[in-house]
TrEMBL record, chains A, B:
<dbReference type="InterPro" id="IPR052558">
    <property type="entry name" value="Siderophore_Hydrolase_D"/>
</dbReference>
<protein>
    <submittedName>
        <fullName>Alpha/beta hydrolase-fold protein</fullName>
    </submittedName>
</protein>
<dbReference type="InterPro" id="IPR029058">
    <property type="entry name" value="AB_hydrolase_fold"/>
</dbReference>
<dbReference type="InterPro" id="IPR000801">
    <property type="entry name" value="Esterase-like"/>
</dbReference>
<keyword id="KW-0378">Hydrolase</keyword>
<comment type="similarity">
    <text>Belongs to the esterase D family.</text>
</comment>
<dbReference type="Pfam" id="PF00756">
    <property type="entry name" value="Esterase"/>
</dbReference>
<dbReference type="GO" id="GO:0016787">
    <property type="term" value="F:hydrolase activity"/>
</dbReference>
């Protein structure tokens, strides 16, 4: 594991840019969103991995305050949206401050799928799914390489959240069930339960049966995405509700006005509100 | 009117930063949100004014495509949220591309209030409201200085949207009623109708009576902000609805789960969806 030296170069340029900008400002601005892309070589995945990092403005009365960390899958899609929510709402003391790490995909069909399958939701063969089933390895990258990197370089509390959408949703649930010690809270927006003949519903049933408690906060949701999609979410919600797991605080929300791609905008806000509520 | 030369300096540094970053990227990233602060000297207001500008990624098959412009009040609060919505949703072809200009406040109590008053919503005297009533002058700055600046420097269509929250909401409605040629569409999130003994409700009633058509799109909303606030919105909605103005496409939405400060997150998304729907 090594930090790409370019990240340092960009950091210096960024500081230069930011300090020059500050001079021109007559009002104190709090809502700078980082666009920097950091790179870390992963031995586990045998590739360079890239991610965004957003660190909220420091309160000058509490410098270097340790902050929780939100690890966000599909970072290239949703990082700026979540970071701007956290910036705005923490500035007005509605949310606590949270560091956001937005992991950028190389092959989401490989990294975010918990099992191997080459079939799409309608049963068709899809050759781009050949590398699927790499989620276990990807979670190992997060646990043994990315998390230590973040914890060395930023002042963090032990509270960690994992968030994902679609394939990222089943990856998030897979992580909760198979590595329950990695995170304190989970967000699964429109998890793709159709994957591999409902692989994740079956795994949920099997794993939940062996758990007596799950001290987590967990938000899951779906939109207006077709009957099969919603039916799967209702099945999942029944599994969770019927198990009555000690310590599990969960919320299921359906958004009938949202499509698969618009839902993250409202669902991530509700999810953060639920998870960060105290 | 002049462009602060620092803006050019930052622009060059920014390009340098971005081009270096690009080299390290193995995936094409579309969601860069500008943090640059531009400055323009306003003769109308006799002060330097600052604003953010977000220009969506250019489609390489249609370079220099002319884009509509959204002028956003309280830019320091909501610019990054709206820009990230537009980036994400236009990337997935759900929204059209729109340039966002986020105007940063110096004294919002002066610039965004349509009349002079020194009383808060509960009737108390507030000395910080002494300069209030500057909205007319502020709109002149937008019309005669900011808009020409944007139109010279960016490739724009003639379609323009004005958006504001709270005092920015009454400023938006004031603009629609008193300068109906400036914009094509308006967003007023939680407009502060309580201002100056319902000044804006009275103005709406008077102005609407003289209008036979208003070819605009108009979104307004409120949250869970107390009975007086909601009653005012209902009165305003009745005025609009009863007038049956030709060409006016409007939507009123109430968000019972949102407070005054959380509402912009969901309301701006719904508003953009309504206004940009085709």
């Amino acid at each position: 594991m090594s930090i790409n030296v370019n990240a340092i170069k960009y950091g210096i340029l960024f500081l230069l840019l930011f300090s020059l900008q500050s001079k021109a400002q007559s009002v104190k601005l709090f809502n700078h969103i980082s666009n920097e892309v950091y790179t870390l070589h992963s031995k586990v995945l045998n590739q360079d991995r890239q991610f965004y990092i957003h660190v909220p403005e420091q309160d000058s009365t509490k410098p270097n305050k340790a902050l929780p960390v939100l690890y966000l899958l599909d970072g290239e899609n949703h990082f700026h949206i979540l970071s701007s929510y956290i910036n705005y709402l923490s500035h007005f003391k509605i949310f606590p401050q949270v560091i956001v790490v937005g992991i950028i995909n190389i092959d989401r069909k490989k990294d975010l799928t918990p099992s191997h399958s080459t079939k799409t939701y309608d049963g068709k063969e899809d050759t781009t799914l050949k590398p699927s089933g790499g989620n276990e390895q990807f979670l190992q990258f997060i646990e043994t390489e990315l998390m230590p990197h973040i914890e060395i370089n930023y002042k963090t509390t032990s509270y960690k959240i994992l968030a994902g959408h679609s394939f990222g949703g089943i990856a998030t649930i897979n992580c909760m069930l198979t590595h329950p010690d990695m995170f304190n809270a989970y967000i699964a927006v429109s998890p793709s339960f159709w994957w591999d003949n409902n692989y994740m519903l079956k795994l949920t049933e099997a794993k939940l049966a062996k758990l007596s408690s799950l001290k987590k906060r967990f938000f899951y949701s779906d939109g207006n995405e077709g009957t099969f999609f919603h039916t799967d979410l209702l099945k999942f919600d029944s599994l969770i509700t019927n198990r009555k797991l000690k310590g599990l605080e969960y919320m299921y929300k359906n958004y009938p006005e949202e499509t698969h791609m618009t839902e993250p905008i409202v669902a991530y806000f509700d999810a953060l509100r639920f998870i960060l509520r105290d």
